[in-house]
Amino acid sequence: MAATTVVHLLRHGEVENPANVLYGRLPGYHLSETGRRMAETVSKAVAARDVVEVRSSPLERALETATPVAEAFGVQVVPDERLLEAGNLFEGLSLAAGRGLFRDVRNYRHLWNPFRPSWGERYIDVVTRMKAAVDSARDAARGHEAILISHQLPIWIIRMAAEGRRLWHDPRQRQCGLASMTSFTFDGDRLISVGYSEPAGSLVRRPSVPGA
C-alpha cells in the first residue's frame, strides 16, 4: 500500500495593522498579540499529530506563526519562497473600506481583467509555485505530516485548483480564516481529500484585510 501523507496549509495569525494597509509582501508587518495567541493555540491543537516537517513563507507574520508550531514538534522552520503572499500592485495602499484604493482613478488601469487578475500575480502562477511547495513537502514528510505556513490567497487558490474549480472568485467568499488549516491528504502521490479546520477560530475578532 502507498504511504498516506498529510500536508496542512496553515494561514498565519492576525497582524498588527491599525492603518488597514494592504501589506502584501511588504516587510515589517508582525503578528498582533491576538495573532501570537492564535499561533500558540494552533501549536497546542496539532501537538499530537505526526508532523515531521514545518515550512513557512519568509514574511515575518508567517515565520512568527510557524515558530511555536515547529517548537511543538522539535523541528526547525524551513523558509520557502514558494509560500509567499501573492504579488499585488496595490500593496501599501490603505483599503479604508475600499475608498483608499478606488478614489484614485490612476488605479483603474490595473482593474481590466479580474480573471487573471490584472492587478497582481497571475492565479495560474500562484498555483504552479504552491503545488511545487506542497509536492516537495509531501515528499519530505512521506508517510507522516507536514505543516506549511502561508497566506490567504495562495492557500485558497491552490485549494480551488486541487478541487478542480475555476480560479477567479469573489475574495469575500474565501474559506480561509486567520490561523485556519487547509489539509491535503495523499495516498502516495495521489490527492484523496481536502479538509478545512479553524483551531483558533474562537480568537478571530474582525474581518481581515483581503489577501493577507
TrEMBL record:
<dbReference type="InterPro" id="IPR029033">
    <property type="entry name" value="His_PPase_superfam"/>
</dbReference>
<dbReference type="InterPro" id="IPR050275">
    <property type="entry name" value="PGM_Phosphatase"/>
</dbReference>
<dbReference type="GO" id="GO:0016791">
    <property type="term" value="F:phosphatase activity"/>
</dbReference>
<dbReference type="GO" id="GO:0005737">
    <property type="term" value="C:cytoplasm"/>
</dbReference>
<dbReference type="Pfam" id="PF00300">
    <property type="entry name" value="His_Phos_1"/>
</dbReference>
<protein>
    <submittedName>
        <fullName>Broad specificity phosphatase PhoE</fullName>
    </submittedName>
</protein>
<dbReference type="InterPro" id="IPR013078">
    <property type="entry name" value="His_Pase_superF_clade-1"/>
</dbReference>
